[in-house]
C-alpha cells in the first residue's frame, strides 16, 4: 500500500544557540543539535559529499548536551531537559539505550575512555556532583570528589586516554583538576590583569591530543590559554585582535598536530591557531553572524585520488591562498572540514584548505515554527513565523532562505499575506502587537497596538479586500482595521480569542475561535458588533477555524478537545465530526480542488488527511517529531502542502497519491470534462473522485480555446497533479527541446538547469550583472568581494580569462592573475607583471625587482635597485641585459577564448559525460526532475525519460515520450507499469485505453500487457468480462475457452495455458503452467529467462482470487517459487543489488516448501543457494556462468539500475520502520504489505514489483507500488 501523502521537501532546523557543545563528530560522520532533535550527516564516498542520513528525535524537551564516543565511532549520547540521556547508534539509526529520570538536568555529558570500548558516560548538572552511568549494567554512581564546589559547573571534559584524569570548568573561570586520584579544586583562575569585574565563566576546554598534561581553555572575558595541568602554569596566552572578541567554540585539527581553530562569537570569523604562536595564523570571514559551535572533522576519508597523488608526488607545490592574512606564510593550512554553526541557525561544512563551503545553509529557524503560508501570487514562496522572533521567506524550489526579519520581535505566532502581489506580510506577536513587513523595502512599515501587551495569536488578511486585516488576541477581542490604522470593527469574546479566518467566497464573513469552545461568525456589514452565527459543540478551546474555499456555507474548526468539526454555518449544525487525533488540533487546511478533502495537524505530531463526507481519516503521517502547528496550500498548486512544527522544521508534501487515477485518465485520452465537476456534486457521499476547483475549471476553459492542445494539456495537468519542485524547469527544457522561443519560458528558467545552448549566454549575463551590481549599488566590502569573486569565477568557467584576471587584480590577488595571464597572451602577462611590479615598488617591496626583470623592464629594475642602495646588484642586472641574458617580451598573437573560426577539437563527448555525472548525482540525491532536466539540457531525450522511469515518475515519463521527437518507444515500460496501477485501482478499462495509446501493437499470437489486464481482472460478471475483452480487441472469454481446449487437445500446452488463463479458467491454466515449466526445466538445462518470458507472463496473470483459494495452496506455492526465482534472476541482470539476496532467500524457502509437496519439483534449494553464493562472492565459476547465462542481458535501459524515488532518502523524526526483506531502517514513507505488518522501503517495493509481482508475504497477493 503506497502513501497518499508523500514528503517531497525538508527544511531542517538550525543548530540551537543557547547550549554549548552542540556539534560533534567522528571519522566520516558529524551531528548537530537542534532544540528537540539531532541531525546526523555521513560522508558519501561515491559523490564525495556529506548527506543528512538520520534524525534522532528521542527527547521531548530541549537537548542540553552532546558527546561522541571516541572509543566507538558509531555511538554518541545526548542529554535533555526532560531528564533523559539517550545513546544513539549511527549505523543502526536508532536509540540503543536510555537513562530516564536523571537526578539533574544533564547539562554536560562526556564518555569516559576505556582500553577496549567506552561504555561509561559521565553527566552532571550545574551544581554537581558528576554521576557515572554504566550503559551496560544501567547502574549510576556519583563521584563524591565532585561535591562541594564553590560555584557552578560550566562543563567538564575527560582526558581522551586516561580514565582517571578529567577537568571541570566553573562559572567563575576557575578549573578543578582531577589527576589520577589527586584533586585540585578551583585552580588556574583568570589572572588579575584580565579581571574586569565581569562574569568570566569557562566556555570551552580541550585536552591536547598529543599530551597527557596540556589543556586548552577558553573563558568569556580573559580569553584562551594553553595550560600545563601538572605544573599548574600557563604555557601560552592567546591574543585576539581585539578585547571585544570572544569565542566559546574550539576544535583541534587532527591532521595538523598543534593546530586548532576557533570561531568568533560576535561575527562569523574562523581563526586558525598554533600552540606555538600567541596570535592567529589566519583569520577568515565566513559570515556576518557570530559562530555558535564548530568542530574539525577527520579528513582521512577525503584524501586526493591515487592518480592525483601520483601526478603530484614529485612536485613541491606552494599555493598562495586568497583570503590569507599574510602574504608570506611560514605554515601550511591543514586539510580539514569544519562543521560550522551560527547564531542565526545557519549550518555549513567548510573546507579549510580549499577555502570554500562544501555546503552552507545560510539560515534556519531555531525554535518552534508556529505558522506558514504560501504567497498568494506565487506558490514558490513560503513565509514562516517562529518562536525565535523571526519571519522568514523560503524558496520552495530549493528550500533556501530568500529574506528574513531582524529577529527582535519576541515570538511570532501567526503570519498572513496581503492579497495578490502587494508584497507585504502581516505578523502577530506575543507582546509587540501586529506588524506589517514590506518585502520590497525589507523593513517593518506599520505596527498596530490595539491589543496592548496581550499576545496576538492569529492574523488574517482579507484576500478579497486588502483594506481589512483581522487579529485575535488573549484580550478577548478580534480587531479589524485598515492599513492606515483606522479601526473598522472590534468583536468582543467572553474569553481569549485565538483563531480567525476570512471567507474566500464571501468577503464580509469572518469566523473566530475562542477559549470557550464556541466558533463565532461575524458579518462586517452588520451595524452592530454582535456575532452572526454561534457554532457550539466543542468542549474545549477552538484554536483554528478555516472557511471552505469553494463552498460558502462550510467552515472547519480544530479544538483542544482533539476533534475537528465541519459546520454548516447557516443552520448552525455540525456537518461532520472528525475524531482520531490524540491531542490538541492545530493546523487546518481545505483542498482547493477536491472539495471533501481536509488536512489537519496536531500536538500528537501527526498530519492527517480526511474525507469529510464519510468522516474517515484517509491517511496519517508522523514524520514530524513534535506538535504540527502550521498547515498551508495554494489554489494554483492544490496538491502540494507545507507544514511547520515545534521540531523547528518545514516540510513540503505531495498529495499526488490521491489524484494519480485522474492523471492517468487524462493520459489515457479520457475527456477532460469527465474528471471535472462542481463542488456541491463533489461533496455528495459516494461521488466519484473528480476535480471541482478554480484551477481545473480554468485549465478546462483554456483547453477549449486551443485546437492542438495535447502538449499543453499534459503539461498543465502534470503541474497540477505532481509535486512542483523542479517540474517547471523540466517543462521549460522540454519546450526548448521542441524548438519553442525563449520568450515562452518561465521567468524562473534562468535560475534553474539551463539548456546547453543557453548555458554560456545566461552565465555571461550573470557575471555582468554581478559587476553591474558592484558598480551601481556600492555594497559593503564583503558583499562587493563576494559579487566580484562570483563574477570572476563565472568568467573563468566561460573561458574569458582576460576578464577573470582583471577582476582578480581588482581584488588584490595579483599573483593568481599573473599565473593565469599567459592563457590570454604573453603581452597581457607582461602588462600585468609590470603593473604588479609598480605596486610592489610603491610599497618598497624588494620583490618588485623580480617582476620588473621577468617582464623585460630592465631599466625600471635597475632604477629600483639603485634607489634601494644596492648598486652592485644594479650593475649585475644591467650587464646581464647588455649580454642578452634577461627576458625580452614581444607582443604575440592573443589566445582567443571560444570565438575562433578555425576548426577546433570537439567536446561533445565531454559535455555528455559531464551531464551523465551531474544527472547521476541528482538521481541518487532523489531529485528525479533535476536529474531528467540535465539530460534534456543536452537534448538526450531517451536518458531523461529513462531517468524518470527509474525514479517511478511514470506518468511524467509518458508525457515526455509523447511530446519529444523520436521518444515514443520509451513509453512501453511506464505504460505497462501504470496499467498495473490502474488494475489495483479497479480501473481495468482505463488501463486498456492507456496501453492502446502508449504500448505498440504486438502479433496476435504473443502475450502482451493487454492480455495481462484482461486475465488478471477479478470480475465475476460475465458481461463485464466480455466488454473488457472487446475493448482490448481480444476474443471473448468463451472463445478463449474453446481455443484453450483445442490447443490442449493438440498437445500445445503453451497456447492452451495462455487461453485458459485469459478465459477465466485460471485454475486449469495454473495447472498447465506448472506442467509446462516442469517439462521445460527438465528437458533443457540451458534455458534462459528470455526463452520462457512470454509463458512466464501468462502464468503469472492467474487471478488473485484463484491463487488464494486454500485448495490451490500447492499450486500457489509452486508458482510463487518460480516467480521468486525468476525475479532473482531479473534482479541480477537489472542490477537491483539491494533485493537480489532477499529474492534468492525468498525463492529458496518457497522451493523447499514446493519440494515438500512434490519431490519432482524442477527447482532445487541447493542450486538456488549456490547461485546466491556465487553472486555474493562475485565468483567466476561454473555456477556464476550458469547464473549469468540464465539471467541474460537487459534490453530496456530504463529497467537497469536501482530505483530512487523522489525524496525517498528523507529521514523522519519518528521511529522509522525496518524493512522486512533487508532488515535496514527505512527512510521516507514505508510501503505496507498485504498482511498489514510487513513493510519495505518504497525503492525496494518498486524494484521487487518490477521483477516479481507477488508479495513477499507468500499470500498470493500482488504488490503495486507504482
TrEMBL record:
SMART domains: WD40 (SM00320). CDD domains: WD40. The keyword Repeat applies. WD repeats lie at residues 56-98, 362-404, 405-447, 535-577, 578-620, 621-655. It holds the Pfam family WD40. Residues 1029-1049 are annotated as: Disordered. Keywords: Repeat, WD repeat. This is WD repeat-containing protein 17. It comes from Phallusia mammillata.
